[in-house]
Amino acid sequence: MTWLRKNLVLILGLAVLVYTFIPIFVVVMMSFNQPPSEQSKLYKFNQFTLDNWLHPCADPSMCDALGRSIGIGLAATLVSTILGTLLAFALVRHDFTGRSAMNLLIFLPMASPEIVMGSSLLALFVAAGFAGQLGFWTILIAHIMFCLSFVVVTVRARLAGLNDTLEQAAMDLYATPQQTFWKVTFPLVFPGILGAALLAFSLSFDDFIITNLNAGNTTTFPMYVWGVSRKTVPMQINVVGTLMLLISITIVLLGEWRNSRQRRALAG
After folding, report:
1. If we measure between CA atoms, which residue out of 182, 181, 108 comes closest to residue 150?
2. Contact call for residues 23 and 43 (beta carbons, < 8 A)
3. What is the reported pTM?
4. 96: domain range?
5. Is the per-residue pLDDT at 266 higher than 80?
6. CA-to-CA dists, residue 146 to 76, 180, 255, angstroms
7. Cβ 56 vs Cβ 236: under 8 Å
8. Is the distance from CB of 31 to CB of 241 less than 8 angstroms?
9. How far apart are CA 30 and CA 40, in angstroms?
Protein backbone atom coordinates (compact mmCIF):
# COMPACT_ATOMS: atom_id res chain seq x y z
CA MET A 1 0.00 0.00 0.00
CA THR A 2 2.90 2.33 0.72
CA TRP A 3 4.26 1.80 -2.82
CA LEU A 4 0.79 2.45 -4.26
CA ARG A 5 0.41 5.73 -2.38
CA LYS A 6 3.83 6.92 -3.49
CA ASN A 7 3.21 6.08 -7.15
CA LEU A 8 -0.51 6.87 -7.37
CA VAL A 9 0.01 10.05 -9.38
CA LEU A 10 2.34 8.25 -11.82
CA ILE A 11 -0.11 5.37 -12.23
CA LEU A 12 -3.03 7.73 -12.87
CA GLY A 13 -0.95 9.70 -15.37
CA LEU A 14 0.00 6.56 -17.28
CA ALA A 15 -3.63 5.39 -17.24
CA VAL A 16 -4.77 8.71 -18.72
CA LEU A 17 -2.06 8.51 -21.41
CA VAL A 18 -3.07 4.96 -22.35
CA TYR A 19 -6.73 5.98 -22.50
CA THR A 20 -5.82 8.98 -24.68
CA PHE A 21 -3.73 6.95 -27.11
CA ILE A 22 -6.24 4.10 -27.60
CA PRO A 23 -8.12 5.91 -30.44
CA ILE A 24 -4.78 6.76 -32.09
CA PHE A 25 -3.70 3.14 -31.86
CA VAL A 26 -6.98 2.06 -33.45
CA VAL A 27 -6.47 4.49 -36.37
CA VAL A 28 -2.95 3.18 -36.98
CA MET A 29 -4.10 -0.44 -36.74
CA MET A 30 -7.05 0.07 -39.08
CA SER A 31 -4.79 1.63 -41.71
CA PHE A 32 -3.50 -1.93 -42.29
CA ASN A 33 -6.95 -3.50 -42.32
CA GLN A 34 -8.57 -5.27 -45.27
CA PRO A 35 -12.37 -5.08 -44.74
CA PRO A 36 -14.59 -7.99 -45.84
CA SER A 37 -15.97 -5.84 -48.68
CA GLU A 38 -15.70 -2.28 -49.97
CA GLN A 39 -19.22 -1.51 -48.75
CA SER A 40 -18.75 -3.05 -45.32
CA LYS A 41 -19.98 -0.88 -42.45
CA LEU A 42 -18.17 -2.93 -39.82
CA TYR A 43 -15.29 -0.99 -38.30
CA LYS A 44 -13.22 -3.85 -36.95
CA PHE A 45 -9.95 -5.47 -37.90
CA ASN A 46 -10.48 -8.23 -40.43
CA GLN A 47 -7.20 -8.99 -42.23
CA PHE A 48 -3.73 -7.43 -42.47
CA THR A 49 -2.87 -5.74 -45.77
CA LEU A 50 -0.58 -3.07 -47.20
CA ASP A 51 -2.95 -2.18 -50.04
CA ASN A 52 -4.28 0.86 -48.17
CA TRP A 53 -0.77 2.34 -48.05
CA LEU A 54 0.14 1.28 -51.58
CA HIS A 55 -3.09 2.73 -53.03
CA PRO A 56 -4.06 5.69 -50.81
CA CYS A 57 -6.06 7.30 -53.62
CA ALA A 58 -8.29 4.32 -54.37
CA ASP A 59 -11.10 6.87 -54.14
CA PRO A 60 -9.90 9.91 -56.14
CA SER A 61 -12.47 12.16 -54.48
CA MET A 62 -10.81 11.54 -51.11
CA CYS A 63 -7.43 12.71 -52.38
CA ASP A 64 -9.07 15.73 -54.04
CA ALA A 65 -10.70 16.67 -50.73
CA LEU A 66 -7.44 16.04 -48.87
CA GLY A 67 -5.45 18.25 -51.25
CA ARG A 68 -8.08 20.96 -50.93
CA SER A 69 -7.92 20.85 -47.12
CA ILE A 70 -4.14 21.02 -47.17
CA GLY A 71 -4.18 23.96 -49.58
CA ILE A 72 -6.74 25.87 -47.50
CA GLY A 73 -4.88 25.00 -44.30
CA LEU A 74 -1.52 26.23 -45.60
CA ALA A 75 -2.99 29.46 -46.98
CA ALA A 76 -4.99 30.15 -43.82
CA THR A 77 -1.93 29.38 -41.69
CA LEU A 78 0.30 31.75 -43.67
CA VAL A 79 -2.11 34.68 -43.60
CA SER A 80 -3.30 34.23 -40.01
CA THR A 81 0.26 33.76 -38.72
CA ILE A 82 1.51 36.95 -40.37
CA LEU A 83 -1.48 39.05 -39.27
CA GLY A 84 -1.65 37.45 -35.83
CA THR A 85 2.06 37.98 -35.16
CA LEU A 86 1.84 41.64 -36.14
CA LEU A 87 -1.23 42.10 -33.94
CA ALA A 88 0.46 40.33 -31.01
CA PHE A 89 3.47 42.67 -31.26
CA ALA A 90 1.13 45.66 -31.35
CA LEU A 91 -0.79 44.51 -28.28
CA VAL A 92 2.32 43.72 -26.22
CA ARG A 93 4.85 46.33 -27.33
CA HIS A 94 2.69 49.39 -28.10
CA ASP A 95 0.11 51.48 -26.28
CA PHE A 96 -2.78 52.81 -28.35
CA THR A 97 -6.39 53.81 -28.01
CA GLY A 98 -8.65 50.77 -27.79
CA ARG A 99 -5.91 48.38 -26.72
CA SER A 100 -7.92 47.01 -23.77
CA ALA A 101 -10.98 46.50 -25.94
CA MET A 102 -8.84 44.74 -28.56
CA ASN A 103 -7.46 42.39 -25.91
CA LEU A 104 -11.03 41.48 -24.99
CA LEU A 105 -12.34 41.19 -28.53
CA ILE A 106 -9.53 38.85 -29.59
CA PHE A 107 -10.95 36.17 -27.30
CA LEU A 108 -14.49 36.30 -28.73
CA PRO A 109 -13.85 34.00 -31.73
CA MET A 110 -12.26 31.47 -29.36
CA ALA A 111 -15.11 31.67 -26.86
CA SER A 112 -17.93 31.64 -29.40
CA PRO A 113 -19.44 28.27 -30.36
CA GLU A 114 -18.44 27.22 -33.87
CA ILE A 115 -22.06 27.03 -35.00
CA VAL A 116 -22.51 30.71 -34.04
CA MET A 117 -19.37 31.80 -35.87
CA GLY A 118 -20.15 29.67 -38.91
CA SER A 119 -23.70 30.95 -39.24
CA SER A 120 -22.54 34.55 -38.68
CA LEU A 121 -19.94 34.25 -41.44
CA LEU A 122 -22.53 32.68 -43.73
CA ALA A 123 -24.90 35.59 -43.07
CA LEU A 124 -22.04 38.00 -43.82
CA PHE A 125 -21.22 36.30 -47.12
CA VAL A 126 -24.87 36.24 -48.14
CA ALA A 127 -25.33 39.91 -47.25
CA ALA A 128 -22.20 40.74 -49.27
CA GLY A 129 -23.65 39.02 -52.33
CA PHE A 130 -21.58 35.83 -52.25
CA ALA A 131 -24.50 33.45 -51.69
CA GLY A 132 -23.94 31.77 -55.07
CA GLN A 133 -20.14 31.82 -54.83
CA LEU A 134 -19.54 29.90 -51.63
CA GLY A 135 -16.49 27.68 -51.99
CA PHE A 136 -12.72 27.75 -51.65
CA TRP A 137 -12.36 31.47 -50.99
CA THR A 138 -15.19 31.76 -48.47
CA ILE A 139 -13.77 28.75 -46.59
CA LEU A 140 -10.33 30.37 -46.61
CA ILE A 141 -11.66 33.68 -45.26
CA ALA A 142 -13.61 31.85 -42.55
CA HIS A 143 -10.56 29.83 -41.51
CA ILE A 144 -8.36 32.92 -41.34
CA MET A 145 -10.97 34.58 -39.13
CA PHE A 146 -11.02 31.88 -36.45
CA CYS A 147 -7.32 30.95 -36.68
CA LEU A 148 -6.27 34.56 -36.14
CA SER A 149 -7.31 34.62 -32.47
CA PHE A 150 -5.36 31.46 -31.64
CA VAL A 151 -2.24 32.85 -33.30
CA VAL A 152 -2.49 36.17 -31.44
CA VAL A 153 -2.95 34.48 -28.06
CA THR A 154 -0.05 32.07 -28.63
CA VAL A 155 2.45 34.66 -29.89
CA ARG A 156 1.37 37.20 -27.29
CA ALA A 157 2.04 34.70 -24.51
CA ARG A 158 5.55 34.18 -25.89
CA LEU A 159 6.17 37.93 -26.13
CA ALA A 160 4.82 38.63 -22.65
CA GLY A 161 7.26 36.13 -21.17
CA LEU A 162 10.34 37.62 -22.85
CA ASN A 163 12.86 39.70 -20.95
CA ASP A 164 13.94 42.74 -22.93
CA THR A 165 17.46 42.66 -21.45
CA LEU A 166 18.97 41.10 -24.57
CA GLU A 167 17.28 43.64 -26.81
CA GLN A 168 18.58 46.50 -24.69
CA ALA A 169 22.06 44.97 -24.74
CA ALA A 170 21.95 44.76 -28.54
CA MET A 171 20.98 48.41 -28.83
CA ASP A 172 23.70 49.38 -26.34
CA LEU A 173 26.13 47.71 -28.75
CA TYR A 174 24.89 50.07 -31.50
CA ALA A 175 22.59 47.61 -33.27
CA THR A 176 19.89 49.29 -35.32
CA PRO A 177 16.23 48.55 -34.53
CA GLN A 178 16.06 46.32 -37.61
CA GLN A 179 19.19 44.40 -36.59
CA THR A 180 17.90 44.03 -33.03
CA PHE A 181 14.61 42.64 -34.27
CA TRP A 182 16.01 40.10 -36.73
CA LYS A 183 19.07 39.06 -34.70
CA VAL A 184 17.56 39.03 -31.20
CA THR A 185 13.79 39.48 -30.96
CA PHE A 186 12.66 37.31 -33.84
CA PRO A 187 14.78 34.23 -32.89
CA LEU A 188 13.40 34.45 -29.35
CA VAL A 189 9.79 34.75 -30.52
CA PHE A 190 10.12 32.23 -33.36
CA PRO A 191 9.20 29.14 -31.27
CA GLY A 192 5.93 30.83 -30.34
CA ILE A 193 5.27 31.79 -33.96
CA LEU A 194 6.00 28.25 -35.13
CA GLY A 195 3.72 26.80 -32.46
CA ALA A 196 0.97 29.22 -33.45
CA ALA A 197 1.36 28.27 -37.12
CA LEU A 198 1.14 24.54 -36.35
CA LEU A 199 -1.93 25.16 -34.19
CA ALA A 200 -3.56 27.23 -36.93
CA PHE A 201 -2.96 24.53 -39.54
CA SER A 202 -4.36 21.83 -37.27
CA LEU A 203 -7.48 23.86 -36.56
CA SER A 204 -8.00 24.66 -40.23
CA PHE A 205 -7.40 21.12 -41.46
CA ASP A 206 -9.69 19.65 -38.80
CA ASP A 207 -12.58 22.11 -38.96
CA PHE A 208 -15.99 20.83 -40.03
CA ILE A 209 -18.82 22.98 -38.65
CA ILE A 210 -17.69 26.39 -39.92
CA THR A 211 -16.48 24.87 -43.18
CA ASN A 212 -19.72 23.01 -43.79
CA LEU A 213 -21.77 26.18 -43.42
CA ASN A 214 -19.59 28.21 -45.82
CA ALA A 215 -18.42 25.59 -48.33
CA GLY A 216 -21.22 25.60 -50.88
CA ASN A 217 -20.47 22.65 -53.19
CA THR A 218 -16.79 22.47 -52.18
CA THR A 219 -15.74 19.38 -50.21
CA THR A 220 -12.87 19.34 -47.72
CA PHE A 221 -11.41 16.25 -46.09
CA PRO A 222 -13.50 16.44 -42.88
CA MET A 223 -16.64 16.91 -44.98
CA TYR A 224 -15.65 13.92 -47.13
CA VAL A 225 -15.19 11.75 -44.04
CA TRP A 226 -18.54 12.81 -42.65
CA GLY A 227 -20.33 12.17 -45.94
CA VAL A 228 -18.79 8.80 -46.73
CA SER A 229 -19.09 7.48 -43.16
CA ARG A 230 -22.86 7.14 -43.58
CA LYS A 231 -22.25 4.39 -46.13
CA THR A 232 -18.84 2.94 -45.29
CA VAL A 233 -15.46 3.95 -43.90
CA PRO A 234 -12.61 3.62 -46.44
CA MET A 235 -9.50 2.36 -44.71
CA GLN A 236 -7.45 4.96 -46.61
CA ILE A 237 -8.88 7.55 -44.20
CA ASN A 238 -6.90 5.85 -41.45
CA VAL A 239 -3.79 6.06 -43.65
CA VAL A 240 -4.21 9.85 -43.81
CA GLY A 241 -4.70 9.98 -40.04
CA THR A 242 -1.58 7.90 -39.45
CA LEU A 243 0.47 10.08 -41.80
CA MET A 244 -0.67 13.23 -39.98
CA LEU A 245 0.34 11.59 -36.69
CA LEU A 246 3.78 10.69 -38.03
CA ILE A 247 4.31 14.20 -39.37
CA SER A 248 3.34 15.69 -35.99
CA ILE A 249 5.71 13.37 -34.12
CA THR A 250 8.50 14.20 -36.58
CA ILE A 251 8.04 17.94 -36.03
CA VAL A 252 8.14 17.49 -32.26
CA LEU A 253 11.27 15.31 -32.43
CA LEU A 254 13.00 17.79 -34.73
CA GLY A 255 12.16 20.60 -32.32
CA GLU A 256 13.54 18.65 -29.38
CA TRP A 257 16.67 17.79 -31.35
CA ARG A 258 17.20 21.44 -32.23
CA ASN A 259 16.70 22.51 -28.59
CA SER A 260 19.12 19.86 -27.33
CA ARG A 261 21.76 21.03 -29.82
CA GLN A 262 21.32 24.60 -28.66
CA ARG A 263 21.63 23.56 -25.00
CA ARG A 264 24.82 21.62 -25.72
CA ALA A 265 26.23 24.57 -27.66
CA LEU A 266 25.53 26.92 -24.78
CA ALA A 267 26.94 24.47 -22.25
CA GLY A 268 30.10 24.02 -24.33
Report:
1. 108
2. no
3. 0.86
4. 60-233
5. no
6. 10, 32, 26
7. yes
8. yes
9. 14
Query: For residues 169 and 180, is the Cβ–Cβ distance under 8 A?
Result: no
Q: Which amino acid is at 12?
A: L
CB atoms within 10 A of CB 163: 8
Domain count, the chain: 1
Task: Report the first-to-last Cα separation within the chain, whole angstroms.
Answer: 46
Q: What is the pLDDT of residue 139?
A: 94
User: CA-CA-CA-CA torsion for 164, 169, 170, 176, nearest 10 degrees?
Assistant: 80
Reported as a single tens digit per residue, the pLDDT across 8-43 is 888 888 999 889 889 889 999 998 988 877 666 667
Is residue 108 in a domain? yes
Sequence-distant (6+) residues with CB within 8 A of 128 are: none
Q: Which CATH number does the domain housing residue 117 bear?
A: 1.10.3720.10
